[in-house]
Structures are given as C-alpha cells and as structure tokens.
Amino acid sequence: MKPLVFNNTVLRDGHQSLAATRMTTAQMLPAAAPLDALGFGALETWGGATIDSCLRFLNENPFTRLDQLKAAAPRTPHMMLLRGQNIVQYTSFPDDVVETFVRCSAKHGMDVFRVFDALNDARNLRTAIRSVKAAGKHAQGAICYTTSPVHTPEKLAALADELVAMECDSICIKDMAGLLSPRITYDLVKTIKSRHTLPIVVHSHETAGLALASYMAAIDAGADAVDTSVTPFANGTGQPDTVRMQAALAGHPRETHYDPRALFELRKYFEGVAAELTKFMSPANDRVDSDALCYQVPGGMLSNFRTQLVEMKMADRFNDVMAEVPVVREALGWIPLVTPTSQIVGTQAMLNVKFGRWKNLAQATIDIALGKYGRPPGPIKPEVLALARKQSGQEPVTGRPADLLAPRMPALREELATKKIPPTDENAVLFAMFPRETEAFYHPKAAAPAPVVVTPVAAGNASLNPPPFTGKISRYALTVDERRYETSVEVIN
Amino acid sequence: MKPLVFNNTVLRDGHQSLAATRMTTAQMLPAAAPLDALGFGALETWGGATIDSCLRFLNENPFTRLDQLKAAAPRTPHMMLLRGQNIVQYTSFPDDVVETFVRCSAKHGMDVFRVFDALNDARNLRTAIRSVKAAGKHAQGAICYTTSPVHTPEKLAALADELVAMECDSICIKDMAGLLSPRITYDLVKTIKSRHTLPIVVHSHETAGLALASYMAAIDAGADAVDTSVTPFANGTGQPDTVRMQAALAGHPRETHYDPRALFELRKYFEGVAAELTKFMSPANDRVDSDALCYQVPGGMLSNFRTQLVEMKMADRFNDVMAEVPVVREALGWIPLVTPTSQIVGTQAMLNVKFGRWKNLAQATIDIALGKYGRPPGPIKPEVLALARKQSGQEPVTGRPADLLAPRMPALREELATKKIPPTDENAVLFAMFPRETEAFYHPKAAAPAPVVVTPVAAGNASLNPPPFTGKISRYALTVDERRYETSVEVIN
After folding, report:
1. Which among B184, B212, B464 has CB closest to A213?
2. Using a CB-CB distance cutoff of 8 angstroms, which residues of chain A are in contact with residue B208?
3. Between A186 and which of A108, A221, B314, B389 could a Cys-Cys bridge form, CB atoms 3.0 to 4.6 Å apart?
4. At which of A249, A280, A311 does a domain end?
5. In this complex, do B290 and A182 lie within 8 Å of one another by their Cβ atoms?
6. In chain A, what's the furthest Cα-to-Cα distance?
C-alpha cells in the first residue's frame, strides 16, 4: 500500500483563510523547527496572499521571510501557491516578470511551486511552469475545482493531460470553495490516476464541512497527499486540521503516524498566535457554512454580497440577485467563482437586477468576455460578447493574454533606481506587483506602526475596560470571549 | 441498491447538544409540519434530557409536548431516547416504573424507542425493550460506542447479538462522544450486518469533526439510516446537518433527495429560534473540538474538568489528572466516558492526584466498583474492589441492579394523591424521576417566570446600549456578533 503524506498549510493558507493572512514571520519562526521535524510532505510557507500582506500590513520583506523560514525549517520541502501569469496578483504580468519571480523564489529556497489559473486556462500556467523546471524545482500543476455543466470530471482530467504535457512533477486538485463531494473527488482522482502515474495532491477547505470526507474518498482512490493545517488555523474556511485528519484514518490501511504529542504542542503554540491575531479572526469563520451548499457559491462571497446590497439599497433583492448569479456565470462561460471572478460575477448580477439584464456591463465583465483573463471554461454568450465589443470598441483576445504584454524587467530596474530602491530582481518583481507598497517599505513616510498585539484580558465572559466617562463620545476596548473589539459609544439622547 | 434514510434529531438531540435542551414546544410546533412533510425515517422528538428540561426549566408537561408534536407531525414515526432501566434519569428504577413509562409514552404516540445503557449491560435494557414490544412499538437497541482495549468491534457486535435475541426491531450504533472513525464504523457495521438482517442506524456527533466521514463509511458498509439535524442545531457537538450530509452524498449510488428548498426554509426558521436561545448556545459549541482527539475524552468533559480543577486549586495539575483518567477508567472496567460516568471517572482522577492513588474513593466510584450501575465492560481492578467493599461494608451486586428494587407504582400513586397531584400513570412516572420538579409544575409557589427571549439588536459588530453613567457600578447589555451579554462595570481607579 502506497504511503500517504500530509502537507501542512498553517504558515500560508491556514492563516490566509482564517486570520486575513496576518501571521507575522516572528509568529511563524518558533513553529518552523517543530513543523520541520514532523516530516510533512511539504510545508506551504509562502505565496498566495502572504506576499501582498507582508508588504501592505506587516512591514516585512517577503523574501526575508522566505530566507528565515527556510533556515528554520531546512529539512521539509517548502511549497508556495503561484497564480500562474498573475504571479501573486490579480492581473497578467509579462513573461520576463514571471520568470524572474520564479527564479528569485527558487534562489531563496522555494522547492515546490503549486501553479494555478482561476480559469483553468493552461496557457496562463505555461511560463510559470517552464520557469520552475528551468530552476530545477518541483512544478505542481493545479486544477481548480468548481461545479458547472462544463466542469465534468472528464474535462477537469483533460487539464491534467495538459499539465503532464507541460512536464509537471505532480498535480493538485485545488478546491478553493470547499465544494468537492466525496464521490466526485473519488471519480476525479481515479480518472487522472487511470491516465497518469505522477503524484496527486488534494487541497480543499472545510467551508461547507465536506473536506475531510472528500479527502477520505481521495485517499481511497489513490491520492498521494492531502493538505492539512493546525488548529486554530484549520477547519472552517481553512483545511482540515492534522490531528483530525489523522484520527479519521485510524485503522485505515494508509493511516499516518505524525507525532500526536508534537502536534498537540504546535496547536497550543498556535492558539497563542491566534490570541494575538484576535481582531483578524472572524468569530464564525471556523464553522461549517452550509450557505455554500444552499446557494452553490463560496461562503465568503455571500457576506460580501449582503454588505454590497445594503450599500446599494438593494437588501430586499437578495434572492433575485442570487438567482441571477448562475445566469451571469453561464453567460461568462461558467467561470469559477473564486476571487476575483466571484466579485465580477456578483457585481454583474447586481447590475442586471438593478438596471435590467445586460443593460449595464461592468468593465471587468467586458474584460472577461473579451478573453483578457484567459479562455473561460465554456463559450461566452453571444449577446454579452457583442455588447462587450461594442462598448469597449475592442476585439476579443484569442491568444494567450500575456502575449500582448511587452517585457518589463529593464524598465522596472530603472524605475527602482530612480526611486532609490535597491534595483535587485527581488525588488523589481515586488515593485511590479505592489508598487506603492514596495516603495513604502523602503521609504516609509512615517515610522511604521508597531504590530498590533491584542492580549485577551479575560476568557469566557464579557469584560469592559471603560475610560472615565467624560464626554458625548467614549471609546471602549471590549473583550468578549477572548475577542477584542475597539468600539466607540455615542450617547444620542 | 438499498435506499438510505435520514432521521432528524433537531427537536431532541439537536437542541440538547447545542442549546442546553432549552427549545420550547412553542418553538418546535411551527417546524413540526415541514419536518413531517420532508419524509424522514423518524423524527426524534422526545426523551433524553428533554423531559427533565420541560419540568425543570420550561414549565411544560412533557406528555403534552408529545401530544402536540404528534398531532402536528402525524405522518413520520416519532422517536425517543430511553436510558434503559434509568428511563430518562441517571439511576435505576424498578421494573414497574419502567413498564409504566413506556406504556404511557406509547399511548401518547411514541413510535420508535431507542434504548441504551451507558455500560452496554444488556440486562439494563431488558425491561424497557420488553415493554416496547408489549406496546406493539418499534424497539431499537443501542450500542454505545467508546474506545478502550475491551471495546473491540467483535465485543460491540456481540451486544448486537443480545439485542437481536431480545427481539429488537433495529440496532443503533450510538457514538455519544463523536469518537467513531470511518474505518472502525465500516468494520462495526459490516460485522453486525454479516450476522443479522435487521436495520442499522448510526448516530454520531461532530464534536471531533469525524461524524460525516464516519456516516459515509457506515453507508458504504450498508447502514440503513443515519441521524442528521438542522443548522444551527447541528454540527459541532450535535449531529451533521441534513443539507451537508445530503451534499456529501452527491453522486453516491445511495444519494438522498430531501427537498433542498424545504430544508433551507427550516434552517431559516431554526436560526430565528437559535436567536431566541442565544444565552444557552455556547459560542464555541458548533466548532470542531480536537481536544476530544488529543485527550481521547469527550469535549464537554474537559471544560468541566478545567472549572473543577480551578475550584480545587489544582489548575497546575491538569496534565497529571488527564494522565490519571485512563488509569481510573481501566480500574473501573473501562467504563465509557459519558454522563454520568465521565464525571465519576474525572472526579476520581482528581482525587487520586490530590490525595494519592485510591487513597480517597468517591461514593460513585464505590458504587460503580460494586456493580450498582450494572456490569462494566471489563473487570474491576481487585485493589479497588477490595477498597470499595471495605469502605462500604457491602458486597458487590452480581445480578441485575434493578432486581434489588421493589415495585413503586402503588406507592407513587398514593404519594401523588397526598400531594394533590392528579394520580395518573403519567404523573407517577414523572414524579418517580423528578419529584420536586413535578410537584412544582402542579403547585408553583410563585408565578412561573416568563420565558427569556433575547432579541439581537445588531449583527456583525459590537454595539453598546449604555445607560447614563451615574455611579461606580454600571450595567450594560452588550450585543456582539448577535450574542447578548449582560455585564456590569465597576470603575476601580
């Protein structure tokens, strides 16, 4: 029986999914050696939103983080999430920027590059995968799972064929929204395994409470690895926790044997980190959210929706907008509902309800229709395509979107020099994606604010630390069940 | 392929597990007809702690509740949880009281009696099962699942043989602590199915986040039914929610087809009920609790433990006490850790750590050792048995504990008459179990307090409704993320 391995995502997706990507390198480092010693298949430590968060919120150089984590956990392969041609941003970058980013990441110690494209357009993966192979690293091609009439196991498995043709070293089934069901997972893994011998990793989220059961089905179908995390940066909108996943395999022919005591110590450690990150942890985001199942859209999309509808004074149209979502999705070729496409679809659904169907096209809708994000999984509705052409005065992009982009590296290096930022490749790729944030990192206008560390003052019940009541408006730091809220109170009568 | 059915537990275990059994009949009735129309295998509507709660907290006659629910949901069989010789209490009752209770329940419309004994001592089930059969109703014998060296699938399946010999109509695998893993579930169901043809129901809790995956394994092994509930009285310490369980079966040969729209409406309804029961819903009790997996004890036991250790000024001995738990459990014949045995084991573990092992035996420990609760799964440690005999001056009970109890029905009727309570069979059995509460129900000393209904005043963020700040101590009603906290604030400097 083939051994099963767990990857651990706590240092990347764990806190990205459950704590707004706010874990600092200082909070990660004490856990790095214990994580390294546990013998996971890979440690996901970088990429996704962490690079943005380092620069935007944490005043950290992302490459320094990678250096430090690699030094602290040298034994286990490090893994990162790479958004193909988008690198770790939301729009396409020129090939030379993608190549440089991958080369720099490899130089700083990254081992496994998990590369995906939200539209599953293999052309958006090509440059990244080729760069990873050129750096002598492990290229893992990802298949984004979503549900639609055009996302059949056969179609998704066909992408696996393309990934294999691009010489990927392994394949990841990436279920961002937690929509995989056990039976579909089983069929998908079996279908790919029947055609290819390379390893398959399954990555899911417990958003709808199906991930662990789907992992079990994947394991029965022969998957080689699954992604798990550490409580409290696990379960809910994150990956299943390692202890739980291991418990689920008790007595299974492929059961794992990660040291329970070490896992328990890690959990205790990360509970302390979570207490420091209280203000970023949504009270409900580690719960099962059957909204995702009721509406067939990702859980996070719904809370955004509700807020936006209130802002647009359309709160009473919620059901109409929800009913419009599949209409928009179908018209845009059944694009997966993931950031940023979930927002594009949601916004267009609201516009359709408010102004009449296709009376008002958002710019992003036009861009999707014209193929600027890549080739959608299904055809664009002719009526919408015609409107997009007319309103933009542009013709659809039929080739690879990045083919339209000129090389930028020389210009980026010059711009860095002008701005008195060391013109390294690392800085150039960061500046390409996050120009304002990178500049602010090197030239902070004021001293960076100290990182916020919230220490819970009481557990179990509400506590209040009120200042003397001196005026009409008073500010309170409220700590309720270990969550801190900064509030202001205005006496209005 | 044999059809799969779901039972629905929202009206009993759903709120017992997630809202301290506080759902009122008035809150249940609007949901009864929609639940009835969904076509569940059974609706669990009564028994367990609900009868105690009706009398103690809700000022309701439990039999009136049953009458009303039965009238409102006449189509689906009603199911109750019965603690064998303990009826719905914690100690043994004479056979005539058990018989009368079952006869009254059947008369008021109960259809399916799920009968269990915490020690899995079949002798404690005999009278109840015989009474159910005599009333022409469905007797479902339950096997309590727990983990220990003596709780092998073969030993547990042997209890199934006894249940079949007692002419049970079906068998329930009852996993109170949510410790079943998929593989063990599969083996257990397969083992029983290989010997018997009667239907098997699996009942678990998501406490450790394994229930849904274990249900999937049970279904693959041929189980006939699983217990589900309705969000927000589902998941966490409760059963998996119906929508989620059905989603997990998508594409499965035995997939179910409960109306998603009706389920969604029910969920919306019960969200309103949960808002009314906010003060009884623990903020964290619908989350995955891997404590249960780390310590191999039920989640609820740990929070009690921590509180008790603080009270006993032993908070620093937590790990010692946890390490002592399996020692005590083994000495008491590996009794399952369920209320009340979890408290008995926990208390003895604390006493052992505080005073030295077996230096101070609690009365309940002595009773367990002497067989007063029934026959434990394994042998009592001779040293502990000798101490129990010496300290109590009593010999062990080797027969069925209830054989030592004289009939009580005539005396109970007399006592009711003396107390001016209508001397019906219904009142007699309630009075036998809950004398003070039954008397208070008929002769309230003061008007019953109005039920507390907490209406959330804001969602999403903290809000404060402060009274004018007039003195040193001020009371605030705090609503944070839809939870209301009544607090007082004292300015101390």
Report:
1. B212
2. 244, 247
3. A221
4. A280
5. no
6. 73
User: Residue B294 and residue A264: Cβ atoms within 8 Å?
Assistant: yes
Query: Is B283 within 8 Å of A288 when comparing Cβ atoms?
Result: no
B100 and B165 housed in the same domain: yes
Tell me the chain B residues in contact with residue A270 when contact means C-beta distances shorter than 8 Å.
none
* A-chain residues near B480 (CB < 8 A): 462, 478, 480, 483, 485
Task: Kindly state whether residues A258 and A330 are assigned to the same domain.
Answer: no
H-assigned helices in A166-195:
182-195
**Position B84: which residue type?**
G
Could you say which of B287, B293, B469 has the minimum Cβ distance to residue A243? B293
Residues B169-181 have a mean pLDDT of 94
Question: What residues of chain A lie within 8 A of the CB of B483, using their CB?
Answer: 480
User: Among A226, A228, A161, A227, which residue's Cα sits nearest to residue A198?
Assistant: A161
Q: Has residue B419 been placed in a domain?
A: no
Quick one: average pLDDT of A83-93?
93
Number of domains in chain A: 3
User: What is the C-alpha separation between A348 and A357, in angstroms, rounded?
Assistant: 9
β-pair type (A5-8, B170-174) = unpaired
User: Residue A319: pLDDT above 80?
Assistant: yes
A244 neighbors A235 (Cβ within 8 angstroms)? yes
Asked if the model's pLDDT at residue B492 lies above 80, the reply is no
CB contact under 8 A, B251 and A462: no
CB-nearest partner of A247 from B208, B286, B476: B208
**Same structural domain, B246 and B301:** no
Nearest CA among B10, B12, B108 for reference residue B53: B12
Using a CB-CB cut-off of 8 Å, the residues of chain A touching B252 are 182-183
Pair B268, B182 in one domain: yes
Smallest Cα distance from A419 to chain B, Å: 41
Measured CA to CA in angstroms, residue B111 lies from A467, A480, B6, B45, B227 at distances of 60, 45, 16, 11, 16
| Residues of chain B contacting residue A489, judged by C-beta atoms under 8 Å apart | 464, 466
Residues B87 and B176 in one domain: yes
User: How far apart (Å, rounded) are the C-alpha atoms in residues B396 and A124?
Assistant: 76
Q: Is pLDDT of A448 > 60?
A: no
Do A247 and A209 have their domain in common?
A: yes
The domain boundary, picked from A255, A280, A305, lies at A280
Residue type, B73: A
The model's pTM: 0.85
Rounded-to-integer distance, Cα B432 and Cα B94, Å: 10
The chain B residue lying nearest A181, using CA atoms, is: B248
Contact A183 B476 (CB under 8 A): no
Q: Is residue B441 part of a domain?
A: no
Q: What is the rounded end-to-end Cα distance, in angstroms, of chain A?
A: 72
Please report, for the domain that includes residue A387, its CATH number. 1.10.472.90
**Residue A290: pLDDT band with limits 50, 70, 90:** low
Structural domain boundaries, residue A361: 296-402
DSSP state of B206: G
CA distances from B161 to A24, A107, B197, B201, B242 (A): 57, 65, 11, 16, 31
Alpha-helical segments (H) within B118-203: 126-134, 153-165, 182-195
Measured CA to CA, the distance from residue B231 to residue B360 in angstroms comes to: 45
Q: State both tokens at A486.
A: 């900064």
Q: How large is the ipTM?
A: 0.82
Residue A86 lies in a domain: yes
Distance from CA of B132 to the nearest CA of A (A): 36
Same domain, A162 and A262: yes
Closest approach of A123 to chain B, Cα-based (Å) = 31
Given an 8 Å threshold on Cβ–Cβ distance, is B288 in contact with A284?
no
Confidence of residue A311 (pLDDT cuts 50, 70, 90): confident
Residue-wise pLDDT tens digits, A208-236: 899 999 999 999 999 999 999 999 999 98
Q: Do B170 and B318 share a domain, yes or no? A: no
Nearest residue of B to residue A212, measured between CA atoms: B213
* Structural domain contains residue B437: no
